[in-house]
Specification:
This protein is α+β, with helices and mostly antiparallel strands. Helix content is about 25%, strand content about 35%.
Amino acid sequence: MRIERVELPGIGARYDIVTAGGRRVSVVTHRNGERDLALYDADDPDASTDSIPLTDQEAAALADVLGGSVMLGQLAGLTAQAAGLFTEHLQLPADSRYVNHALGETKARTRTGVSIVAIVRDGGVIASPTPDQTLAAADSLVAVGTRRGLDDLADLISDSSR
């Protein structure tokens, strides 16, 4: 894969992504902040077959999904290399005391030694959640740590006492 930046005078810039299979996808960023996703013909990589305008929210969602899926794949590879380190999805129970509270209130890293590296919610991924990220019932927390730490985190988020 390679990424190339092409200046588009009077328009903005185009970022071409050429995959290992030779397919080309581009993101055109306009000077006014708009952006388009362009798809190219497999047989003629210079012929655009479609252009999809993206709102700020759509662009952010696409970036989150792509970034999150790449991050999860990298974590899976990391755990295969690091003995004693595990990645696990832990479901936040609906009756957890942390539902509708900030992630930072769990003090998960301090209390368990585990890092919560993503939250999977409604089919989307919140990569690298900040401590002020609000947790929701049925969130799946993607956590990295030792077996004991992950077990401790599971116990922590299951606490329903208020």
